[in-house]
Amino acid sequence: MKKVAVLLSGCGVFDGTEIHESVLTLLCLSKAGAHYQCFAPDIKQMHVVDHLTGEVDATARRNVLVESARIARGEVKSTTELAIAEFDALIIPGGFGAAKNLCNFATNGSECEVDPLVTDFINEFILAKKPVGFICIAPMMIPRLYPHGVKGTIGNDSDTVAAFNLMGGEHQVATVHEIVVDEANRIVSTPAYMLAGSIAEAHSGIEKLVAKVLEMTDAR
């Protein structure tokens, strides 16, 4: 049975993992008959956002691994615990945590860097030529991790598209229902809540992404 790693970035759209996207990913994997294991880096969150008011709580401090355990029902491992031979693929849901905690795109734009623990984790899948799925804003890490000209999508936001291309990627415009596949680099991406107006719309692209990632594991 296939086993997929799912990389989380906290809990909550504004400062962590987008909860709908992560749960839909886990549901689609389970319905497809695949096992999954959630991972997260053991690092501090960039900041903490009150999801009711949208305001930053300047006094609060939270840990990405600890917060990710909320989504994983406690079944989450540090990225340093990865045993790559046990996994067939990786999927990374979005949410601002992907752009604030996994990398710093939210503050640095096209000059962003991926956190070293996250780079090491994802690079294990890249070096093993195992497929990786990027959802929502998570694809902004793609140009920092893969060779020049790598393909991916965040949907159609012009400023974000420009940053993706400036970083060395080759952005492909997509709708919420579509996925973009880079066969050469074994990447699948979809916009999800970069465009979705409902959880059903987010599910449409995520379901296709999960199916394609699992299909690509057969092609190894």
Summarize the helices and strands and which ones pair or pack:
Blueprint: E1 3-7, H1 19-31, E2 35-40, H2 64-71, E3 76-78, E4 89-92, H3 96-102, H4 105-108, H5 116-127, E5 132-135, H6 142-145, E6 151-152, H7 158-166, E7 170-171, E8 180-182, E9 187-190, H8 199-218
Parallel strand pairs: 1-2, 1-4, 2-3, 4-5, 5-9, 6-7
Antiparallel strand pairs: 8-9
Helix pairs in contact: 1-8
Tell me what you see in this structure.
- With 220 residues, the chain is α/β, with parallel strands linked by helices.
- 35% of the residues lie in helices and 15% in strands.
- The protein has eight helices and nine strands.
- Strands 3-2-1-4-5-9-8 form a seven-stranded mixed β-sheet, sandwiched between helices. A two-stranded parallel ribbon has the order 6-7.
- β1 (3-7), α1 (19-31) and β2 (35-40) form a beta-alpha-beta unit.
- α1 packs across α8.
- The longest helix is centred in the C-terminal third of the chain and has 20 residues, at 199-218.
- It is globular and about 50 Å long.
- The mean pLDDT is 97.
What's the short version?
With 220 residues, this protein is of the alpha/beta class.
Please give a handful of descriptors for the protein shown:
220 residues, alpha/beta, seven-stranded mixed beta sheet, two-stranded parallel sheet, 8 helices, globular, ElbB
Largest sheet: 7 strands, mixed
Mean pLDDT: 97
User: What is the 3D shape?
Assistant: globular
Which percent bin holds the helix content?
Answer: 25-40%
User: Approximately what portion of the residues adopt beta-strand conformation?
Assistant: 15-25%
Total strands: the figure is 9
Biggest sheet strand line-up: 3-2-1-4-5-9-8
